[in-house]
Backbone:
C-alpha cells in the first residue's frame, strides 16, 4: 500500500460522515414511514409520563428528527375530537396555522412511530416542529 493510500484510509476512518440535509433526510423517512432507529430509541419514563424518545447518537441543530404522523384534520374536527376524546388524547394533538386556517395533526392513535412521543417539554423544548 502506498503512503497516499494509507493516509487516505486513516483520514476516512476518522472523518465524520457527510451530513445529509434535513430535507433529504425527511424525503427518505416520511414516505417510507420509517424512524431513525440508528439515532433514536423509545424508553419507558414513569406511570405519569409513559414513554419518551431518547437519542442514541448526536443530532445536530436543524437536523430532521422524526415525522409527527397522524390524521390531518381541520379546526372544527379538532374541536370536536377535543370534546369527545379522553383528555389524555389532547397531548397527541398538534394544532398549527397554515394559510390563515387552523389545522391539527391528531397522533392520538398508537402507531409505534417515534414522532408522537418526542418533545413533551413545554418550557425548554430541545427541538421544534417544522
Residues:
Amino acid at each position: 500500500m502506498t503512503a497516499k493510500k494509507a493516509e487516505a484510509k486513516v483520514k476516512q476512518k476518522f472523518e465524520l460522515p457527510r451530513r445529509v440535509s434535513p430535507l433529504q433526510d425527511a424525503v427518505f423517512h416520511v414516505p417510507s414511514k420509517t424512524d431513525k432507529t440508528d439515532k433514536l430509541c423509545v424508553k419507558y419514563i414513569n406511570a405519569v409520563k409513559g414513554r419518551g424518545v431518547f437519542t442514541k447518537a448526536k443530532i445536530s441543530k436543524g437536523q430532521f428528527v422524526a415525522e409527527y404522523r397522524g390524521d390531518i384534520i381541520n379546526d372544527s374536527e379538532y374541536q370536536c375530537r377535543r370534546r369527545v376524546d379522553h383528555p389524555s388524547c389532547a397531548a397527541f394533538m398538534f394544532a398549527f396555522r397554515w394559510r390563515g386556517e387552523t389545522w391539527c395533526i391528531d397522533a392520538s392513535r398508537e402507531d409505534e412511530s417515534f414522532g408522537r412521543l418526542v418533545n413533551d417539554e413545554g418550557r425548554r423544548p430541545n427541538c421544534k416542529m417544522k
In short: The mean pLDDT is 85. Strands lie at 40-46, 50-55, 71-74, 93-98, 101-106. The radius of gyration is 19 Å. The chain is about 25% helix and 20% strand.
